[in-house]
Every structure is written in C-alpha cells, then in structure tokens.
Design a protein that fits this description.
single chain, 363 residues, alpha+beta, 60s Ribosomal Protein L30, Chain: A, 2 domains, four-stranded mixed β-sheet, 8 helices, elongated
Length: 363
Amino acid sequence: MIARLKHVLWLTIPLLIIPAALALADATIPTADLKGAKDSPLLQRYQGSFIISYEQKAYDELNLPLSPLEALEPRQLDRKNNKVFQAKQAQELEGRYTRWVYLIPAGRSSLEVLRNYQEEVKAKGGEVLFECKGEACGGDPRRGLEGGGGEQSLMMHLVPPEKFTDPNFSNGSCAVTSRIQDQRYFAARLPQPGGGDAYLAVMTFAIDAGSYCKALHERVASLVILLEPKAREQKMVTVKAEEMASGIAKDGRIALYGIYFDTDKAEVKPESEPTLTQIAALLKSDPKLNLLVVGHTDNQGGFDYNVDLSRRRAQAVVQALTSGHGVAASRLKPYGVGMAAPAASNDSDQGRAKNRRVELVKQ
C-alpha cells in the first residue's frame, strides 16, 4: 500500500509543478510596443524593433559614463555584494528622464544596431562623446541587472537594479536580467529644438537567455536612456493648519503636496519641514483629532512596488511627526495605497505630479 502511494505521488507532483512553471514562462516575441510606450521625437528607433520596457519621469538623475568603469578603491560593495564600479569621467545630469528597452529584429548584430544609432545622432547634429565594447567598458561584460557576489556591470550602473520594476519573466525583465553577450555602449549629446543639449546613453547587446526567457535567446536588444536637462519645478506648497482643518471638516481629508521624497525613496526631505510643522499645529489645535496618513504614487512602476513605496513614505511622515514634532504615535496611522486612488490621469506629467501626494484622513 505504501509503495503504491509513493508511485501515485511520484506521478502527481510533476503534473502539479509543470503547469505552474509554464505559467511563469512569459517571454514571447512581441508584435507590438509595450502599451503606453512611445518614441522620443529626438531619436528614431532601429527599424522593425519593438519597445519591451519603458519608463519616463518628469525629473530624475543620470550618471552618464564618459570613460570605462573602474573598481572603487578602497573596495566598496553594493547591496548584493557586488564590487562597485564608477567612471572617472562622467556627467551628472538631472532633468526629464526616459528609458527604453527595444527588441531588435532577428538576424541583426549588436554592432550594426549601435552604428545605426550613432548615425542617427550625427544626422540630428549630435556628437558621440564616448564609446566602448565588452571588457573595455569595465565591470562584468556578461552581466545585466541580475546577480550578486561579483562585479557590477555597465547596465547596473546605467539602471540601478532597485529602480527596475518590470514584472519577472516579462519581455523587458528577461532582456535586462539575463546574461548578455557582445556588449557595446556609447554616450552622446543631442541638440534640443528649444536650445541646449539632451544626453543619450545607448547600450546594445545579445540576450543569453535560458529557462522562462528562452524565447529571447540570442536576440539583440538596445537599452536607450535619454536625459533632457531642465530646471526642477519649484513646488514648495505649504498648506496652513487652518486650511487643513477646514478641508478635513468639509471632505474628511486634505491632500498635501509639500512633503517631498527623492525618486523611489522613502526618506522625508528637509524641505518638507514647513508642512510637517503645520500638521503638528493642526493636531495641537484639536486634541481629539486622529489621522490616517495616506501615501499615494503615480502609476510608474509595478502595483505592488508602488503600494509598498507609498506605505513606507507614510510611515516616514509619521516618524517625522512623532520624533521631530512631539506628536503622539497613537494619533497617527500610516497607510499606503500606491496608484489605487489617483487624483488625476496618469497619462501626463502634470497628472502624475498631482497623484504623488500625502493625504491626511480623519479617523
């Protein structure tokens, strides 16, 4: 009887495992761009390619390598115990940030695609500032964004892994987390129609995929990052305690835009202090008032990632109020809803900016 049971389990368990594994095999050859993704008018794509990963932020930063990456001395390790590399020559940029990953048609080489991008840059009146390939770029030339205990890669430098939020085993994730071959890179400057220069990082490579990403194996992809420098919008919006009280009395909540965080971070920035002071004054003026502190994000990034980020930001606000302003922790409850309750459409920079907020809700 026991032997028969073992035989049944042996036959059954693989049948349960195989469908689950197949459900994760999401990488496919695309026939259209990722929904919501679009090209920049400053730069055309390689003909026949499709956008498989896309991110755009109204304001972010980019360290643009203009020389090979070199290991830092004394030795430093990142959060995954990879040796940290940096370029001695680089340009620190801030402004409108757009990142694409394109899947190139079959039969094309990484070199061919790179040269086409460079020709496009020169045709637009731009200039190639630096170029490298393989090991000459520095770091691990076979690694994308995935892995630990080794050396950082050029791709890890261009796109910090913690900022990449595409779903596991999606086309975009498979392209950049698989091992890679024939890595090539250049940095360039592009003139902007309104004056000034935009900056471009282009990395082309062949995907060395296995397992659930095997549909993309040996296909060439291009990682393209465009940074359009511009002044940061000044939005030091301080709502007075009296206005907070009025809004809460009327609607049960008040949206605040004067609490600031760096992109993808949950540490309250010092310029948030005026708004924190007014929240503390509101609570002092009404000893019976208890509040939910609710974090909201736009729709850039995955749903679970944004919920967690908004929760951590709400917790950081509560911590700032209790430790820095003497507010009793029992009067505040942090909560994060991510992108689930937008105040405006996420289809524009203005709408996304309105959605990134902290709300006080009467308990």
